[in-house]
Amino acid sequence: MxxxxxxxxLSFNSEAFxxxxxxxxxxxxxxxxxxxxxxxxxxxxxxxxxxxxxxxQKTYPDIFKTIFLTENMGTTYTRNLGLKKAEGRYICxxxxxxxxxxxxxxxxxxxxxxxxxxxIIAPQLVLPDGSIQNSVKKFPTLWHKLVKLPKxxxxxxxxxxxFYKDFPFQDETIVDSxxxxxxxxxRVLVDDIGYFDEKIFYAxxxxxxxxxxxxxxxxxxxxxxxxxxxxxxxxxxxxxFSKLSISHLLGLLYYYRKHGGWISTRRIYR
Length: 270
What we know:
By secondary structure, the chain is α/β, with parallel strands linked by helices.
């Protein structure tokens, strides 16, 4: 069977979200007549996530591909495992704490197909209370991060300066980067841009990939015609000096060493 769309999702103690995510993806694809696969990589979960994943794999063996790791290997490494296993012409990177909502997947794929300049489509993320998540960002600078540091120390935060002012959330808009809770792209993009940088454990892997995309002459389209419900799973976002927050800080420092943009983004933009 020719697979049109490969979904890649990571699991880490995600028992509260997995079934809703899987069911919504399967329902949406079946409604639109899309041939698809769901690739799940578990990062050493200690809750019932493994049992949930195995149940879906046993029930839908032609849909689910699984990889079980014994420890948390990070976002980039595990997403790359999924990309190497994917067979679809189109790829959807999707977090396990999301659900498909309104809009057409066929429309997303057709938009990618019709534009040579588009690299990634990022749908609109909607929070459980119905509000729109501020999910698109400008390329960050270390200076903006440091300004926020006194309030954010020990926590994973995004500086207000990273966001667009008065962003038109109801309009299709080209953006610098978008949160990778849900990304769509053609499989050939990986051949052109490469895989996620595994020197970044957790974040900002999405910003790094977005900038690599930009430097290659490709663009990211914010696409509100497709809406994704995002539960924004808070594993350790609010724990001061957690391993995840420290990893995020190290990832940021690596990003700035790699790309520049310590004080200004002037050197980044062509």
